[in-house]
UniProtKB/TrEMBL annotation:
GO terms for molecular function: protein tyrosine phosphatase activity. The lineage of its organism: Bacteria, Bacillati, Actinomycetota, Actinomycetes, Micrococcales. PANTHER family: LOW MOLECULAR WEIGHT PHOSPHOTYROSINE PROTEIN PHOSPHATASE (PTHR11717:SF7), LOW MOLECULAR WEIGHT PROTEIN TYROSINE PHOSPHATASE (PTHR11717). It holds the Pfam family LMWPc. Keywords: Hydrolase. It comes from Promicromonospora iranensis. Its EC number is 3.1.3.48. It is an enzyme of class 3 (hydrolase). Residues 3-179 form the Phosphotyrosine protein phosphatase I domain. This is protein-tyrosine-phosphatase.
Length: 189
């Protein structure tokens, strides 16, 4: 059975589609990566500036369509990765029992840094299903700087901000996937 990872931001047209597409390229078909926005307009397309950057990475955002975050998406997710602490709070308000499987992307990258690699014989689905437990175990006793846990919102800003945001997302995802995935080799379309 596949493991589902849900990425969440505000409009589901910049940060969460980037997380979805980049993470999907780093996992096999046993992991389903989806995304939604706390204030998304269903059917919206990826912001043109983000779409251009993702396309340059070899990803195809053309068929992506935004969708609003609803409780069913949260309930079905094994792991929820948010862009900011406010998005994390919004997820937990909607589905309180998701609190122990919901993390900001930057928080997750910090918590998994230096984690013991998972056994090679596990499938990607089995590995990603363990992420919330591992991250929660490493959260105990750690003081994280709240100001360093949010991915900046590039919407409506200059292309330099979009590039900076995408680079930050990629760096964080590299850290997370290096701790979780069997291989450090990413599959680009």
């Amino acid at each position: 059975m596949p493991t589902t990872v849900l990425a969440v931001c505000t409009g589901n047209i910049c940060r969460s589609p980037a997380i979805q597409l980049l993470l999907d390229a780093r996992t096999d078909s046993t992991v389903s990566v989806v995304s939604a926005g706390t204030r998304a307009i269903d059917g919206g397309r990826v912001d043109p500036q983000m779409a251009e950057l993702l396309t340059a990475q070899g990803l195809d955002p053309a068929s992506f369509r935004a969708r609003r975050l609803v409780p069913d998406l949260i309930t079905q997710a094994d792991l929820v990765i948010t862009a900011t602490r406010a998005h994390r709070a919004s997820v937990v308000r909607r589905v309180p029992e998701a609190v122990r499987r919901t993390f900001t992307l930057l928080e997750l990258a910090v918590l998994l840094r230096g984690a013991t690699p998972l056994p090679a014989e596990l499938s990607d689905a089995e590995r990603w299903a363990q992420v919330p437990e591992i991250a929660n175990g490493r959260r105990s006793g750690r003081r994280l700087d709240p100001g360093s846990l949010d991915v900046e919102d590039p919407y409506g800003r200059r292309s330099v901000v979009f590039r900076r945001v995408l680079t930050g997302i990629e760096t964080a995802l590299d850290g997370v996937t290096n701790a979780v995935s069997r291989s450090r080799q990413f599959r680009w379309p």
